[in-house]
């Protein structure tokens, strides 16, 4: 019995010792300290305590004062910085503090997480880590909104400059076209007295020869032609159909004036669009030149041919006469008219050049001898004129 009682006592002692050790262990864990931030100073100013701070790039001087809870005298501290990066977190090495203050003023604009741990020097126990976040803002000239505003401003300046230059270029072009159109109108008005002068000379000739019937007939045709001409002169363009009517009436007047000295032959190809627009009073001076400087000096019956046909992208008007030719006409005029030169073709050349400029067109014309004259022959050479109008559409 005694031995059994001793065993019972020993077991009780061992059980009490185990319970005591367990209590001591729990007390040790319960008494573990923690670290807190006692004070935060940013750029020399104490700020309220918080878990995160957002500061300007010029206020990156940071000072953290630490303390332990409960307050212990044998505590040291260490910290490390974790920087947020587009390539991943950048972890700096641990830094041991000699005092309870963290001072740093070398941080660039970014987001930083300060990880702080306290260490008990007596039993080498570490506290749980605490984290404090600092977001250092970029300077305003490195912010996205600044660069966005710069881009929008520069784009606006360049766009405004281009619009301004285009506006003045368009204005200059508009004024240039206005001046050129006035020049074209002036040249067109110069054709009026030139044409009227020749018509009145014909009337004067009939009156001097006392041919009142021919004069009256000529004046009727002249009045009708003037009406057609005035109607067409209000615009820069005339349909080919109306131009043919005007030219036919003009040639009839010239035949009457020269006592039917030549025959008139008009040929229009079936595929020619007679409603196409051409410049007003362009063809008349060429026909006048063929009659007055070719057929007029012919001793026999002459012929005037006018052909309209399509040639690729052009509408072609071909004017032919079997008159004396350009060289012979110049010789005759030099003797009889004392150096007088017709202004009709010169004015027409200026009109065509001006019209091509303002309408961005490409009207062409050429004047050549109709046949090659043999020195041993006395045959009339004649003249061939081709006017090419570009087709649109």
Overview of this protein structure:
This is Signal transduction histidine kinase. Pfam families: His_kinase (PF06580). Keywords: Kinase, Transferase. 44% of the residues lie in helices and 27% in strands. It is built from seven helices and 17 strands. Strand 5 (75-83) and strand 6 (90-91) form a beta hairpin. Mean pLDDT is 80; it is low at 18-31. Helix 2 runs antiparallel to helix 7, helix 3 packs antiparallel against helix 4 and helix 4 packs parallel to helix 5. It has helices at residues 2-30, 144-208, 212-233, 240-257, 284-295, 326-336, 344-359, and strands spanning 34-42, 45-47, 52-55, 62-69, 75-83, 90-91, 95-97, 101-104, 110-120, 130-136, 237-239, 262-268, 277-279, 302-311, 314-321, 364-369, 383-390. Strands 3, 5, 6, 7, 9 and 10 form a six-stranded mixed β-sheet that branches. By secondary structure, the chain is α+β, with helices and mostly antiparallel strands. The protein folds into two domains: 32-141, Immunoglobulin-like (Sandwich), CATH 2.60.40; 177-390, 2-Layer Sandwich (Heat Shock Protein 90).
């Amino acid at each position: 019995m005694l031995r059994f009682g001793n065993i019972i006592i020993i077991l009780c002692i061992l059980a009490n010792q185990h319970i005591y050790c367990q209590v001591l262990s729990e007390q040790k864990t319960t008494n573990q300290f923690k670290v807190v931030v006692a004070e935060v100073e940013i750029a020399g100013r104490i700020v309220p305590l918080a878990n995160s701070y957002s500061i300007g790039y010029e206020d990156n001087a940071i000072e953290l004062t630490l303390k332990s809870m409960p307050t212990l005298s044998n505590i040291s501290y260490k910290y490390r910085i974790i920087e947020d990066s587009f390539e991943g977190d950048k972890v700096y090495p641990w830094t041991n503090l000699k005092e309870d203050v963290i001072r740093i003023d070398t941080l660039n604009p970014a987001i930083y997480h300060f990880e702080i741990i306290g260490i008990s020097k007596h039993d080498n126990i570490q506290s749980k880590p605490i984290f404090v976040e600092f977001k250092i803002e970029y300077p305003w000239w490195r912010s996205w909104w600044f660069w966005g505003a710069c881009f929008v401003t520069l784009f606006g300046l360049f766009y405004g400059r281009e619009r301004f230059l285009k506006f003045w270029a368009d204005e200059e072009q508009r004024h240039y076209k206005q001046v050129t159109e006035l020049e074209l109108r002036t040249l067109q008005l110069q054709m009026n007295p030139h044409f009227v002068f020749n018509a009145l000379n014909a009337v004067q000739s009939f009156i001097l020869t006392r041919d009142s019937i021919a004069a009256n007939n000529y004046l009727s045709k002249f009045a009708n032609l003037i009406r057609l001409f005035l109607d067409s002169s209000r615009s820069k363009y005339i349909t080919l159909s109306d131009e043919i009517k005007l030219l036919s009436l003009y040639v009839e007047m010239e035949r009457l004036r020269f006592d039917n000295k030549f025959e008139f032959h008009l040929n229009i190809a079936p595929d020619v669009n007679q409603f196409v627009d051409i410049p007003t009073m362009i063809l008349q001076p060429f026909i006048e030149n063929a009659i007055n400087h070719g057929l007029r000096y012919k001793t026999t019956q002459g012929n005037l041919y006018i052909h309209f046909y399509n040639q690729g992208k052009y509408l072609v008007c071909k004017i032919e006469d079997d008159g004396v030719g350009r060289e012979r006409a110049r010789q005759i005029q030099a003797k009889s008219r004392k150096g007088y030169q017709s202004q009709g073709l010169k004015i027409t050349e200026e009109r065509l050049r001006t019209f091509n400029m303002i309408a961005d067109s490409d009207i062409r014309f050429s004047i050549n001898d109709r046949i090659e004259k043999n020195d041993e022959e006395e045959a009339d050479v004649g003249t061939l004129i081709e006017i090419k109008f570009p087709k649109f559409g």
